[in-house]
Amino acid sequence: MFRRRRRVREIPFSFDSFLDIVANVVGIIIRLILVVWVGARSYSSLQDIVPAAASAEKTEAHAPADPLQQERARHRQELDRARQKLLAQLRQLQQFEALGKQTEEEWETVARSRQELEQARATLVQARDQRAAAREQIALTSAEIRRRSQKLAEEIRALEQAPLPGRILRYRTPVSRPLQSEELLFECRQGRVTFIDIGALLREVQQGLDEKAKLLRLQWAVEGLTGVTGAFRLRYAIERERGLLESITESAAPDAGSNFRYGVTRWRVEPMALERGETLPAALTAESEFRQIVDGIDPQQTAVTFFIYPDSFDLFRRLRDYLYEQDIVVAGRPLPEGAGIESSRHGTISRGQ
User: Fold this and answer.
1) 20, 169, 261, 295: which has the fewest Cβ within 10 Å?
2) Residue 183 contacts residue 330 (beta carbons within 8 Å)
3) What is the dihedral of CA 152, 157, 162, 164, to 10 degrees?
4) By three-state DSSP, how is residue 5 classified?
5) How many distinct helices (H) and strands (E) make up the chain?
6) Cα dihedral angle (25, 29, 35, 41), rounded to 10 degrees?
7) CB–CB of 193/278 below 8 Å?
8) Contact indicator for 326, 299 with CB cutoff of 8 Å
């Protein structure tokens, strides 16, 4: 549907409205004029300020310095001088410390030298005192020397008038005889004498004979070895005696059911130490093993036998002479080097003087 168009109404003219418009335009123009004027004034003021600042800087350049600034500069110079002085003092202090350390080392050296000199002086003083004491002991007056000379002369005359002391020399007869008494055995080897306790070794053999006899029922001989006694042990052989029939037939095995006799047929002493025994000076002292053994024996019941190797004959002669003074019978059995000390039923018995 169609809308109805309104009729345009004419705007009525008003004088008041015209005055308002004119007033507003005039007001705007006045404002623009004020803005332009203020801007121009501001620009002129800026032109005046720049030359004034330049002239102020020139004035300050030619103006006198600030007193505080001069005071700071003076204090700064004093601080620089104090710093330099302090550095110089520190260098001097370091030099003094180095010199002090060197002085201490020199002082220690001097102290050691002084101590050594004092020790040398003490030694010299002691030596001087000893020499003085020796001179006092040696120094004799002429009267003392004459007195001692007279005394020595009297003693010499008395000795010349005294009879000579007699000395009894005993020489053993060269005739020897078989030993029929108890026998002690000693080994003379490498300049040392060593006791062979053959008695203890044979007693150990006797204690084991019964056990060996059981073995001899089936064989002709049994060998054994004892324990160590002193410096030696004993290796021995026990043999069964052959009967008349067994000797003739020379049977390979013995009769296990027959009765038989048996015994030790041979033994050999085996040393168990390379260095053994006592030297001659040690053996002749009262506390030696040699003296403890031989000084307690009965000369009528016991003899001594020495087994002598080629390097120990002088030892044997000295020990033999000592035993001769005790009236003990002595037998010597020389042995070649490398030979052992042994005995058998077919050997020879010792012969003593």
Assistant:
1) 169
2) no
3) 80
4) coil
5) 9, 10
6) -160
7) yes
8) yes
Task: Tell me the two tokens of residue 23.
Answer: 């007033």
Contact present, 345 and 265 (Cβ < 8 Å): yes
Identity of residue 111: A
- Please give the model's pTM, rounded to 2 decimal places: 0.48
Distance CA 17, CA 23 (A): 10
Mean pLDDT by 10 residues, the chain (353 residues): 55 68 83 81 61 54 62 83 85 85 87 88 88 72 79 81 58 50 88 92 86 78 88 88 64 68 86 90 92 89 92 93 90 90 71 50
Q: What share of the chain is helix, strand, coil (3-state, %, to 5)?
A: 55, 15, 30
- Angle at CA 286, nearest 5°, toward 284 and 291? 65
Handedness of CA 217, 218, 220, 221 (dihedral sign): negative
Confirm if 228 and 218 have CB atoms less than 8 A apart: no
Residue type, 118: E
The residue with tokens 């004979």 is 209
The two three-digit tokens of residue 351, written as one number: 């012969």
For residues 237 and 222, the answer to whether their CB atoms sit within 8 Å is yes
* 22-to-12, 17, 27 alpha-carbon distances in Å: 18, 9, 9
Phi and psi, residue 95, nearest 5°: -65, -40
Q: How far apart are CA 178 and CA 182, in angstroms?
A: 12
222's CB contacts (< 8 A; 6+ apart) are 212, 215, 216, 237, 238, 239
Contact 299, 330 (CB under 8 A): no
Neighbours of 254 (CB within 10 A): 18
How many Å apart are CA 44 and CA 74, to the nearest integer? 46
Quote the strand ranges of 152-278, DSSP E.
Answer: 177-178, 182-189, 192-196, 221-225, 232-240, 262-271
8 Å CB contact between 208 and 295? no
